[in-house]
Automatic annotation (TrEMBL):
Coarse class of the protein's main subcellular location: membrane
Taxonomic source organism: Pyrobaculum ferrireducens
UniProt GO cellular component terms: membrane
Ligase recorded as keyword: no
Ranges that cross the membrane: 39-58, 70-87, 93-117, 129-147, 153-173, 185-203, 209-226, 238-261, 281-299, 306-325, 337-359, 398-422
Domain of life: Archaea
Domain annotation Major facilitator superfamily (MFS) profile: ranges: 4-425
Cellular localisation: Membrane
Any Pfam family the entry gives: MFS_1
One example GO MF annotation: transmembrane transporter activity
The name this protein goes by in its record: Resistance protein, conjectural
Keywords: Membrane, Transmembrane, Transmembrane helix, Transport
Membrane topology: Multi-pass membrane protein
Length: 427
């Protein structure tokens, strides 16, 4: 059991690590392929979009086929994609490799939490979940710093630690029993409609094809209607009948939408405008994750004593204020403080908001609720990167693009504050 738990912890480190490391390496990567740095933000869209499209279907498939089997298959595919990314001869090949890696990571994250609950006895589950969360924060913390150091030699090196951890995870997990075997089969039609609609929205925004994005949004509405009539849906629409649950998931989505694009966009600002070395830019960007890791336990304790909705609204308010100040193009002296404020705001929002989500559903539905939280996260991240890609490519320069982007993200964060306050006042 301890080997399998170590495998899960290693896998949880990889996605935040590679996404944040890749963000720091974008200028070096752009120089290597001879393209504008703003054109490379779409690489993050490819990685996160693949996860967003497949994580819910793979979560349901893990229930049917077995958590261990899905977890191992995901590790194998993700490892192949990351190794291929390091060897990519062209930008197009790198896009393809990241899509493959994203599909594999979707299978990993669609099964790892369920696998954790299967292998860990009830009296140790809270500790195991805490360790898993810590692994995610460590990935976020290490990604920019390690990625910045490696990018000074070659952007290809940033994939080596991630691929090594995936290999280690595969070696450790062994042949865990195939738990699950849920009744009802697999909803192919719902998965296709949901995944295709998500892809249309994100790719439409990235390319500025607003008709495609609108069609994707209509497809998402159709997917909700379709899934509400399924006996074994890939998306359990019934959970959204709870106003608290719906508002909390929407707030989580908006929170990730307003923050995920910060790392790659600020990386471009620090390296191309402030002329920082990749190493220095990486260490600077790690400050946000450091504040998140240090303050998340504090946010949890405060939320236990005060209304979690009020704490979440406060956190979202700090995020909005910090984003607005970032839009004024901060100096290298003020940027670290704003990054610390962003990390603090994120911690004081996400911890109570997740608590509210999981407390608003019966224990028997928390697995699906956790999957929907994961979907809100990866969809928000993917769409955030798509927005950043479009805004930065459309701007006259990197500084102007980052300023416009952070101002837009600040307005989105204000919407998160509003949702949190409405939820708080409704109690």
């Amino acid at each position: 059991m301890d080997r399998a738990l170590a495998s899960i912890l290693a896998s949880s480190f990889v996605t935040p690590f590679i996404a944040s490391a890749l963000g720091v390496a974008l200028p070096a990567l752009a120089s290597s392929f001879g393209v504008p740095s703003t054109a490379t933000v779409s690489l993050l869209v490819a990685l996160t979009l693949a996860v967003a499209v497949f994580v819910l279907p793979f979560g349901r498939l893990a229930d049917v086929a077995g958590y261990g089997r899905m977890f191992r298959a995901g590790l194998a595919v993700a490892g192949a994609g990351l190794a291929s990314a390091a060897l990519s001869p062209s930008l197009e090949a790198l896009y393809g490799s990241l899509l493959v890696a994203g599909v594999g990571l979707a299978a990993v994250f669609g099964s790892n939490n369920a696998l954790l609950f299967h292998i860990v006895p009830p009296e140790r589950r809270a500790t195991a979940v805490g360790l898993n969360s810590a692994s995610v924060y460590l990935g976020l913390l290490a990604g920019p710093a390690v990625g910045g150091l490696l990018a000074q030699f070659s952007w290809r090196l940033i994939f080596a630690p991630a691929a090594a951890l995936i290999l280690l995870s595969y070696a450790l997990v062994g042949r865990v029993a195939a738990a699950g075997r849920a009744a009802g089969g697999f909803d192919v039609a719902g998965s296709v409609v949901l995944g295709g609609s998500i892809a249309l929205v994100v790719l439409g925004v990235d390319a500025g094809l607003w008709t495609a994005a609108a069609l994707g949004a209509a497809g998402l509405a159709a997917a909700f209607l379709l899934e509400s009539r399924r006996e074994a849906p890939v998306l359990e629409v019934g959970l959204f009948r709870s106003v608290v649950f719906s508002a909390s998931v929407a707030a989580a989505f908006l929170n990730y939408l307003s923050t995920a694009a910060l790392s790659p966009s600020l990386s471009l600002l620090f390296q191309e405008v402030y002329k920082m070395a990749p190493r220095d830019a990486g260490f600077m960007l790690s400050l946000q994750a450091l504040a998140m890791a240090l303050l998340a336990p504090v946010a949890g304790r405060v939320s236990d004593r005060v209304s979690p909705s009020a704490v979440a609204a406060l956190g979202a308010g700090v995020l909005a204020a910090a984003l607005y100040l970032l839009s004024a193009e901060p100096s290298p002296a003020t940027a670290p403080w704003l990054l610390l404020a962003l990390g603090a705001g994120f911690a004081f929002f996400i911890v109570p908001n997740t608590t509210i989500i999981l407390s608003s559903v019966p224990p028997s539905r928390r697995g699906m609720a956790s999957a929907l939280v994961a979907e809100a996260r990866v969809l928000g991240q993917s769409l955030s990167n798509a927005v950043a890609s479009y805004v930065l490519r459309s701007a006259p320069g990197v500084a102007a693009g980052v300023s416009a982007l952070t101002a837009l993200l600040a307005y989105i964060s204000v919407a998160t504050v509003f949702l949190s306050l409405v939820r708080h006042l409704s109690h």
